[in-house]
Design brief:
UDP-n-acetylglucosamine1-carboxyvinyl-transferase, Chain; 23 strands; 13 helices; single chain; 4-stranded mixed β-sheet; alpha/beta
């Protein structure tokens, strides 16, 4: 069931040569590397928002500094928070010191403006960041004044209806400025929300749930939230909801999630924090996949032993391809070194990715160079991400000679006689990194707009080259160490070569 993308790639203008990135090619050489990656985007943006509504300033150590998180920081500044750079000890940039929004001051200011017949107006740029366009509107409803939300052209195709309808269900005025249920729109904040009971349909994205839970402690009566999906559809990527619940608990918020479709947040104080952000385990995926497709070994130190990140599923996913994985505890008792090794071409898989849909593009890249057919299930919601990822993956796998088709809730991918091509990114960071994975074992792949990886991993091209070559960056990042243990070389007969 292949469908057209919003902009069919074959009908786009030719890609300028200057925007093409020649993907590093390994040939028959297995990758051997150890590296760390920057902090989790999902955790950074959740903690930024919670810090903006906390009872005192918070310090976020080793946060992700990327387009998505910088957009979140600026959105919070627009709403009255202070988000300041402070020197830190992370490998990828400064820490953030967050001084919360002065709600009482803003309410006093708004009363004076009402008396004078004026009102505060704000504009928030969301880019293509789902966490900004979906998490921040409920916060804006608590801040007096009119706040407009705008985004990239691709962001205007992402579903926003459940957020808008939820706000209206809570008594918030929302003015839709474009297509209904999409960006742009404006939220009219009154300075407070009663909260109470609310039902939403979050079957398209778990972010619709997190968007409300994250600020619900600020509602007068908290929030009792229930998901009611059409035709009984559940909430995709539930680990992201669990991540939200865990961050709330760490901030001292009373929250309950006794069943997969109902949650309760009690009104109360959000406590300030001083904490370090975990590495982004989803962004670690392409580097781990490099070991699988090349028959090599990649290790990532400081992998959290306990985490709510969807990237933890790599421990179950990669062995399905025939790889070996291990997680050796480190001295601090909180982290370990996660190692993936392979010695043969990856086998095809049949995987349910409903709990970790964000990993699907990387998984699909491995499937594209596997030695047998694969089926990926439970990822229908990816049609509403940065791009329609299912249609995009089918198009790009076919572009290099692979066989792929959409199913009702996923993808079917079969081996093919692969050939080099320009692989398009669709302004989607995970499409770009998936193409880089394929390029490791398919000579001549060029990736359109590799800079789109700055959405969640600005250092990706440098780290990728560092992994392939063993070179050392001068950015302060932890250098990649070439592996010391030999791994059997793979046969040159592998179809991707």
């Amino acid at each position: 069931m292949t469908r057209d993308l919003p902009e069919e790639p074959e009908h786009q203008e030719p890609v300028a040569a200057t925007s093409l990135w020649p993907a590093p090619f390994l040939g028959s050489r297995p990758v051997q590397a150890s590296l760390t990656v920057p902090g989790s985007k999902s955790l950074t943006n959740r903690w930024l928002l919670l810090a903006a509504v906390a009872d005192a300033p918070s310090r976020l150590r080793a946060p992700l500094r990327s387009r998505d998180t910088e957009l979140m920081a600026q959105a919070l500044r627009e709403l009255g928070a202070r988000v300041e750079d402070v020197p830190g000890h992370g490998d990828f940039g400064d820490d953030w010191l967050v001084t919360p929004i002065p709600f009482e001051h803003l309410r006093t200011q708004a009363a004076a403006e009402d008396a004078a017949g004026t009102a505060t107006e704000r504009r928030i740029e969301c880019g293509l960041a789902g966490t900004v366009m979906r998490f921040v509107p409920a916060l804006a409803a608590l801040v007096p004044g009119r706040t407009e939300f705008h985004g990239d052209a691709a962001a205007e195709r992402r579903p926003m209806g459940p957020v808008i309808e939820a706000l209206r269900g809570l008594g918030v005025e929302v003015q839709e400025l474009g297509e209904p249920g999409r960006l742009p729109f404006a939220v009219i904040g009154r300075g407070a929300l009663p909260g109470g009971q609310l039902s939403i349909d979050a079957s398209e994205s778990s972010q619709f749930v997190s968007a409300l839970l994250l600020v619900a402690a600020r509602f007068e009566h908290g929030l009792q939230l229930r998901h009611v999906g059409a035709d009984g559809a559940g909430v995709p990527s539930l680990p992201h909801v669990e991540m939200t619940l865990q961050t709330l608990r760490e901030a001292g918020v009373r929250v309950e999630g006794s069943e997969p479709a109902a949650w309760s947040v009690s009104p109360g104080t959000v406590q300030a924090v001083d904490l370090s952000i975990e590495q982004d385990l989803s962004n670690a995926g392409p580097f781990l996949a490099a070991a699988v497709v090349s028959g090599g070994t990649v290790s990532i130190p400081r992998w959290p032993l306990r985490t709510t990140q969807g990237g933890a599923h790599w421990q179950q996913i990669l062995p399905a391809f025939g790889a070996q994985v291990s997680l050796e505890p480190e001295a601090d008792g909180q982290h370990g070194t996660f190692t993936v090794s392979a010695s043969k071409p990856p086998h095809g898989v049949d995987l349910d990715l409903s709990q970790a849909g964000e990993l699907a593009p990387t998984v699909a890249a491995i499937c594209a160079v596997a030695d047998s057919p694969s089926v990926l299930r439970g990822i229908a919601h990816l049609r509403g991400h940065e791009t329609d990822r299912l249609a995009a993956l089918v198009t790009e796998i076919r572009r290099i000679g692979g066989r792929a088709e959409e199913t009702a809730d996923g993808l079917r991918i079969e081996p093919g006689q692969l050939h080099p091509a320009v692989m398009r990114s669709y302004e989607d960071h995970r499409m770009a990194t998936a193409a880089a994975v394929i390029g490791l074992v398919l000579d001549g792949v060029q990736v359109e707009d590799i800079a789109t990886t700055a959405k969640t991993l600005p250092q990706f091209p440098q780290l990728w080259n560092q992994m392939v070559t063993g070179s050392v960056l001068d950015t302060g990042a932890v250098p990649v160490q070439p592996g010391s243990s030999p791994v059997p070389q793979r046969s040159d007969s592998h179809g991707a070569r």
